[in-house]
Amino acid sequence: MFTHKKDIFFDLDHTIWDFDRNATETLQELYVKYGFDELCGHAAPDSFITAYTSNNHRLWGLYHHNKIDKPTLRRLRFEDTFTELGIDPNLFPWDFEEEYLAVCPNKTHLFPHAHETLSYLKDRYTLHLISNGFQEACERKLAGNQLADYFDTITISELVGINKPDARIFQHALHEAKAAKQESIMIGDNLDADVRGAQNFGMDAIFFNPLSAAVPDDIEHSIADLKELQRLF
To answer: What keywords are annotated for this sequence in UniProt (predicted)?
Structure first.
């Protein structure tokens, strides 16, 4: 279907690197270590992780649109989680956040068929990465999972100073890749930042939808498994 394309741009978190699975594993490890089982009144971390995941996704949405900065995102995702659970946010130990940032990017859970599909595509197309993630974390995820070699160019929004869905980061990435818009396509999980961001820029996009959520009418292409890309390309 997309054999006329030459350059494929991927998102990283939630598309290749399974952010929620890696974050959950990290939070499970730290929950007891920091005594959150006693603080939250629950031996299991489920309610804490659910609240954190919701708050983290919401705050990243604000970060994408420059409504909050990096320090605010880092502070509020745990403070808001404590508040939601009825715990004084001033009780949150900031060593927890620092250890979370040290441990989580080293986790190695990828979405199924990630290496297989990237290897398949690299033999046929030129691959690139555009991430709104923070530089140090992105670099550790790429290195720790042997992902960097798949991509000819890597665009990290923190370094560029522009976040997806701003058209300027797509233009920057195309310029770095020496790629043509009509011969390029973006693949990502975030409807706003990745898919509509690319589409509004005039670039084709594929919605990575592993949870099989309802697909809005304005989204032309979606996949539930990375392996489907081997059929499309």
So the answer is: Hydrolase
